[in-house]
Amino acid sequence: MPTSLLLVEDDPRLREDLQRHFLNRSFRVNACASGTQALNAVQHDRFDLVLLDIMLPGLDGLSLLDELRCQQAVPVMLMSALGAEQDRISGFTRGADDYLPKPFSLAELDARVDALLRRVAFDRGVVRQGESTQVMLDQGCQDVVHHGKAAGLTASEFRLLATLSAHPGEALSKAFLYQTVLHRAYTRLDRGLDVHVCNLRRKLADIGAQHVQIQAVRGQGYILVDTEHA
Amino acid sequence: MRRHPLLWKLAALQVSFCLLLTWLIWTWGLSVERSTYFLSQADQAYLGRYAQQAEEAWQQGGAAGAEALRRQLQHAEDTWAAVIGPHLQSLGTTPLNAEEASHLTFMRKLDWPMSRRLQDELPFVSIEFPQHPEHGRLVLQLPERLLPTGLTPWTHIITHGVAPTLLALLLGLVLYRQLVAPLNRLRDRADALRADDLDNPGLPLQDRRDELGELAQAFEHMAGRLRHSLEQQRLLLRTLSHELRTPLARLRIAHDSDLPPAQLRERLGHEVNDMQKLLEDTLDLAWMDTEQPQLATEPVLMLSVWEALCQDACFESGWALARLPCSLGTDCRVQVHLDSLAQALENLMRNAIRHSPAEGRVSLDGWREGDCWHLRLSDQGPGVPQAELERIFQPYQRLPNSGAGFGLGLAIARRAVELQGGRLWASNGHPGLCLHLLLPAAQECLES
């Protein structure tokens, strides 16, 4: 069953290009030019994802989002040329799942969309837990133990390690990791995840678990590699 | 606690005005009033002649002479009179009765003030014999026509109306000079601003050490900001139009020439990235400049930030990690807004890498200074002329041979650091440039 996408964008050229792009990725796309149209579409159909422009004629994106949230919990990604921090924040508090400032590249859009869909699936427990590495994750204490030594992880660091070790050998995108580990959308200047990774690396090295390596994959994200048990 | 110098100034003015007014009415007004209660010189001489006549009459005619003069006098002046000896006995033939004797208990001399104020009675005047004062005196009730008129309404108006009015006018003038004249100067300045005359010299009013001085300072500050932002706006417009025209021109040429599709895509991608970066940096700077956002701070381990940035820098520049050493330990924790600090440090690092010689190193070290951490990023590049060390932090300022970039990196870094209570400055490290960061240290016990 193809993923169904509701695309709300008033610029006709951008709408057509995006529609063509998602059709090529074999999504089922419903493209709307106004908020009213979109509201209509939502009431008649179910969608897996809504891609929503903020500046729309008539009913604007944020009001549409409010309406939408009253009815269903479909993941919503906002797109906007408004770059100010205030708009990002108000977008999230109103229940958007991600925010993509214009201009963006198609690669970035794909990464964000995939991360969002994946996180939704992850939240529903669809993704199978991968086999764990040799470090012992202590779910009770929210900590990692190696040779009897506990690393003293913070909650975010533990979630990061748990998420990475649930997908060993697989590069997880930053967008996905921000969604699942830090529960926030990834923005251009956000360094939170990188710093958590560096802290986690140091704590793993401190307990002698150097073989568990978190490697950065350029343009993709982070991957957990176990050099001893590979 | 706010000082209120103008309040005290005005209070002092008012108080001195009130005191001056009271003093004027008390002393001057009263003395003017008193002066009107005296007999004129002519009247004094006129009455003195009666005393002389009485003395002559008594010496020549004895008691009968005195009595005759007394009657004549009483008749002429239509008043009561008596010629009195040294023992307050009548020198005439009729002795004084009790009521007449009581007139002698309070007598005035000629040069004393005269008024009806005492029991609404005409005063009794005692005039000693001019030749032999020890022999006696003439006493008479002052004739009505000789009584001084006292204060006339006109004198009253002058002492209690005109003079205070003049004083009040003077006070008004001083108040006007103190309050309104400076405001007028301020208005003239505002008019000058309205007419786009931004380069006027500063107001001399600023030197006043009171509220108006503060107002002038605030005004000058505002004018300065206005001037600054106008300059910024012109610079922004000039730079943006230049910087955007260049990639647009290149796009235009690429579009018009028959490039193979792959090459065209690459060129397109490159130019679009450049324009996007310029736009984002410009908006970032404008956002920090105009919004002055309050950034939420958290304790951050500097070493981890550096490692995270090195990861990207190595990808981008192809440098080996060993060329980016950091001597900070895990004790270096600063209280900052992570993303802004990382952005600032990344800009500094990129700048340093860009200016490094082949196989050069960019290193970070630092030490504790009181409540702050003093971090130093050193490169081995050519450095910056001493005179230009401040200018490199101004937006869109590019030194000769500074290579790529729009001249926004260091400006953004400085704004970002200052927004979280830190400082950023540059010095020359012989060789290379040193960038100094002063950041508030984090509380020790907190866990990030």
Keywords:
heterodimer; A: 230 residues; alpha/beta; Rossmann fold; Arc Repressor Mutant, subunit A; 2 domains; 8 helices; 11 strands; B: 448 residues; alpha+beta; Beta-Lactamase; four-stranded antiparallel sheet; three-stranded antiparallel sheet; 11% strand
Structural summary, described in words:
The complex is a heterodimer of chains A (230) and B (448). Chain A has 230 residues and is an alpha/beta fold. Chain A folds into two domains: 4-123, Rossmann fold (3-Layer(aba) Sandwich), CATH 3.40.50.2300; 136-226, Orthogonal Bundle (Arc Repressor Mutant, subunit A), CATH 1.10.10. In chain A, 41% of the residues lie in helices and 20% in strands. Chain A is built from eight helices and eleven strands. A five-stranded parallel sheet of chain A has the order 2-1-3-4-5, with helices on both faces. In chain A, helix 3 (61-71) links the parallel strand 3 (49-53) and strand 4. The radius of gyration of chain A is 20 Å and the shape is elongated. Chain A starts with a strand and ends with a strand. Chain B has 448 residues and is α+β, with helices and mostly antiparallel strands. In chain B, 53% of the residues lie in helices and 11% in strands. Chain B is built from nine helices and nine strands. Chain B has helices spanning 5-35, 41-77, 98-103, 153-194, 211-256, 261-291, 302-317, 338-354, 409-419, and strands spanning 81-84, 124-128, 137-141, 298-301, 333-336, 363-369, 372-378, 423-428, 433-440. In chain B, a hairpin with a 2-residue loop joins strand 6 (363-369) and strand 7 (372-378). In chain B, helix 4 packs parallel to helix 5. The longest helix of chain B has 46 residues, at 211-256.
